[in-house]
Structure formats: C-alpha cells, structure tokens
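Folding Query — how this chain folds
Tokens — whole-number codes for backbone shape
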Amino acid sequence: MRSNANGTPSDGSLSDRSLPDDPPDLAHLLREGPFHLALRAALTARGLPLHRVQHRLAARGIKLGVTSLSYWQQGARRPRRPESLRAVRALEQILELPGGTLLRLLASPDPAAPGTGRPPARSYRALFSVGATVESLLAGMELPADGGLHTVGHHERVRIGPGGEMLGRESQHVVRAHRDGVDRYIAVHQGDPGCDPARIRVRADENCRTGRIRRHPEAEVVVAELLFDARLRAGDTYVFGYGFEDGTGGRSTEYVRGFSYTGGQYVLQVRFDEAALPVRCRRFSRSGPDAPRGRLADLNPSGPHRAVHLVEQGVRRGILGIGWHWE
C-alpha cells in the first residue's frame, strides 16, 4: 500500500471491521469525515473525557496534552507530526475503532474545519528573518496554525533606555474570536542583537496569565503563551494586557511588528530616555523582512514626552514599524 508524506494510507480504503453498536452518526463520520467531527463523535460515544484519554495515552508511553486533544476535536489543529500520528493510532485503540480509521481521514483536507475559506495568513517566515525558528517553536507547542482571533485594536508602547537599549514593551490588546473555544494568545518577542532571552521576562498584566514560554538563544526570540481568564465563543471580544521586560540587548535602531492577517487599529508609541534622543525618526512599512521600506514619514521625538507614534486604522498583512538614527 502506498503512503503519503504523513504516513497515512493513501488509497482511501476503510477497514471492513464493523461497529454494530455505534450510533449512525459516528459510523457515517468514520466513513466520510471530517477528522475532528469523527474524533469528537467517538469520544462522545465512548463517554471518555479528555483527561481520561490523556491518561490512557500516557500509559502507552505517549505524552499529549489535554489542550492538544481539545484542539484536534474542535478542528483548530490537525495532527501532522510523527509523534502526533502515533497518538492517533493509539486513539483508535482506546476508542475501539478499526485500525486506520482516523488516520485515513487525515489523508485529505478537512473542509469542515473552522477557518476554511479564510484568506491564508502570512507565515512567520514571510514576516521575520527568524520566522522559521518561531514556527518550529510553535510546532513543538502543538498550537493551532490559526489562533482563532481577529485584532480589533492594539496599542503598543516601547521604552528605550539611556543607553539606547530597548528596556521593554507593553501591549493593550482587544481581540474578537472567529471560532468557539479560543482561550489563549501567542506573543512573540525578538530582542535586539546581543540580547539574552534567558533574562527577558514575560509579564501578564490584565485578564490573562502566562502559560508555556519557549526561548531560543541563537535567534534571540521568546515565544509566550498567554492564557485568557475565559474561553471565548465565536463573536466574543476580549481585552487583555501583557508585556516583555528586556534591557539585555545592544543599541536599538527600530521596532517592527508583523501582521499575518488584516485587522483593526494598531497604535505604536516609542518613548526615549531624555539622555538618549535620536536625531531622526521615521515610520515605515515593508512587505517582508528583506523588502525595501515604503510609506516613509518623518516623526519628531522632541517635546516633554520624548515619544513618537504611528496610528494605522486598518492594518494590512505585512510589517509596520518605526526606525531611528542616533547620529
């Protein structure tokens, strides 16, 4: 039998073993899919809560979080990695399903999954020079490719210290869920050259708490999971605040933010120490990390607040930022 790249059967066949006691809906979903609905129906039919499934997987030497199982049955994420596919094979045994039943459903796209038909997101690789590293960190955390959130408004403040170093940044974020079950946001921080990710502190300020944090010293990146105080339904809005305390890098010359999707309003404010004022500031946009800067506009950091800002009423996919020169 030929197999496709993820190791699942590619001939479309289904085992002849029957499940006479299964409800008709489950039998139909096991034949036709999609994967997430078939998994959900099987869990319901067997009466197994996710924490019990997790324990049974662990007894087989398979480590998988309840969050990942929840994402799989919601359709927010599909198992793809070898260890995830191994877990699916074990699930077929735990749920008393014919061998290969769930794996077969993973061999084709899932048209019923939430988010299908949405414009594709810009990948991290298309937004940051260290995008491949960020994607590998996220893959290791078994997080949905689509976070399920749309930005309504985002106000970000960056603080530059007396030596020109980035002391930190804080965000006030307003989001709207476009699918049910969203309960977290992933924040990515790339420090300036010479920074020490091990010393960068993640701060959960309002309506959230820190979850898993991953650091990559060579890429100078920190990826932080921010857990909401509530699980959102599609259409719900949520306000939360968070920040990164840095101050470990060298002299900073710009701050940029990448946008995977179009969204709402974005405000960026950069505040300088009175002992280190740049001679020139400019806002700019870029289509990618190596693309030339466009939409240039001078900004004046003079005045009692020693700050510059930009306001984008409706962000587009790409990069926005403010750069400055010290001399």
About this structure: The domain at 124-325 is CATH 2.60.40 (Immunoglobulin-like).
